[in-house]
Structure formats: C-alpha cells, structure tokens
Amino acid sequence: MIEFKNVSKTYENGTHALNNVSIKINDGEFVFIVGSSGAGKSTFLKIIMREQVADSGSVIVNNYNLNKLKKKEIPKFRRTMGIVFQDFRLIPNMTVFDNVAFAMRVIGAKEKDIRKRVPYVLSLVGLTSKARQLPTQLSGGEQQRVALARALVNNAGIIIADEPTGNIDPEMSYEIVDLLNHINAGGTTVVMVTHEHELVRRFNHRVITINKGEVISDTAEKHRAEIKTQQEETTEVKPETKEEMIVAAKQEIKENVEKLREEVKSSEVIEKKNNSYYDQPNSDSDLEDFMRNYGINKDDIDYSSYLDDITENDGGDE
After folding, report:
1. 218: which residues sit within 8 A by CB, 6+ positions away?
2. Cα separation of 211 and 228, whole Å?
3. Which of 120, 174, 257, 310 lies 20 to 30 A from 274 at CA?
4. CB 65 within 8 A of CB 59
C-alpha cells in the first residue's frame, strides 16, 4: 500500500527533512506517526500525498510510483486516498452536505449517487442533523467530522490524517480517533500524524517514531506479533486435509455411540428398579389427593392392562 525505500528529502533552505527513510505500511493497517516538531512527520505525509517529491529513494503508494508520476496524473492518484487536515479546510459558503458532496462532484459522480452516498457518510460521523448548516455554525469537533466524512465519501483505500485532533478538545479528539479506528476495522488503511501520546497509548496500533528525519523506532513487528497471537487464541484449529476430516468424523461418531450406550445402560437400570416403562402415577402425592377426592382408591388401580395395551401397540419394542 505505502512503501518508502531509502527516501531522503532536503529543502532549498538546507533543512534535511528525511534521511534514508524506509517504511512499509500494509493494506488495512492503522499507523501512528509521532515525533517532535520539525522531526519530518509532515514531510513524510506530503511525499505520500505528492505535495513534495523525494530527492532520492523510491516511493510507491497504491501501485503508483510517485517518483515517476506526471503532473497530470496527480489528481487521479489523490482520488485513491482521503485526506483530513488539522485546519479542516472546509469551504465556508457551502453547507455540510455540499462540502462532502464536493469531493464526489470533482470526480464527476452522478447527482443521484451523491444524494444516496452523502447522507450515508454523514450518518457514519453523526452529522445527519447538521447537513444544511454552514461550517461556521459548527463546533471544531463537528467541523473535523465533516472533513472526515469528505475523506470517506469516495471510498478511499487510505485515510491520511495530519494532526486531525490539533484544534479540538480532548474529549472530541478521542471521538475522532475512535471514528478512524472503526473505519480501519472495515479494512481502510489509516496513517495519522499526531503529537498526542495519550491517544496513541489508548489505541493499540503500530507506532512509527521519527526524529531529525530518521525512523528511530517502529513497533510493526511487535504489533503484528500481538495480532497473530490474538488470532491464534480465537481461531479454532480445524483439520487441513480430507483424511484428517474423515478421522475426526469417525472419532466423533465413536464418541457419540459410546455416549448412547451409556444412556441405554442407565435407562435399563432405572427400568429394572421400577419394573415398569414409566414411573407409577401413585408416586405423585398431588395425583393421589386428586384420586381420593374423586372416590378412587389407588390400591384398586390395575396398571397391567394399560401396560399390555402399550406393549401390543408398540409391537413389543421399547
């Protein structure tokens, strides 16, 4: 999905933003990019979005080779991802609905598809009731959710979030990342730059730390090992071959036969003890009271005739 190989970037003022960076982010991952101000985080994202071009090394995103990408191909490439900025970047004179719909209109989507898709995406971010309001009528957290809806509306495979919680309060910050978490659970790759270490701790995802243009730590292997362990613990081990399936089926049949035999033996013991096919009615004290009230003496009841009838009707077979 995203692969940097020995990527370096130096700006005209001499700032070494990235130095020999190699990172691979697979489909469906959620990755936090952390580091101090000026560490190179923003440059990393700008290269992914093709706002900047690496001086050396190779960059592959969604099967596009960004080093060789022509200028006319950039818009098409950017449609493969959704981008969420810290400052929202909403169009102030457009409603919430139209801000989200705008992302579909620029790619030539049909209006009937827009009318169907936009309300659905707004419902995902909890803004259905705000569809006709302007950005200035919303809180910071609501504006960021509009930006997130806009990033989602074209079914992008990657969501790039550049400090999406930088201008909102802590409670709303959690909600935004929780939304991104749910989006990621559906298979969308999420790359989020943040300086909020508390959020990183609360959401257990891969963390890449950049310092002075270099990757100084990456929890990729540790995180993947944890996921593998969780999958192994929750996945039932099943036979892999036809022969193993046959053996397992025979074993299950054998166990069921043994269980049935035990049940038959147990029923035979009960039958011999009671000398009948079923418990005698006079074992029920309530029934005894019932019979006495109606002038029936339990000692006068002959059950043998009933048993003979049952045996005859059954053909004598239990």
Report:
1. 23, 206, 207, 208, 209
2. 29
3. 257
4. yes
Return the beta strands (E) in 53-102 as ranges: 56-61, 64-65, 81-84
Structure tokens at 112: 């009937």
**pLDDT tens-place string over residues 197-206:** 888 999 989 9
- Could you report the per-residue pLDDT of 206-262, keeping only the tens digit for each? 999 999 999 999 998 776 666 666 656 655 555 566 677 777 777 777 777 666 666
For residues 69 and 51, the answer to whether their CB atoms sit within 8 Å is no
Q: Letter for the amino acid at 207?
A: V
State mean pLDDT over 32-49. 92
- Reading the block at residue 253, the tokens are 């049949």
CB atoms within 10 A of CB 168: 21
Check: pTM over 0.70? Answer yes or no: no
> In order of start, what are the domains of the chain with their CATH numbers?
2-234 (3.40.50.300), 284-318 (no CATH)
- Tell me how far apart the alpha carbons of residues 61 and 48 are, in angstroms, rounded to a whole number: 7
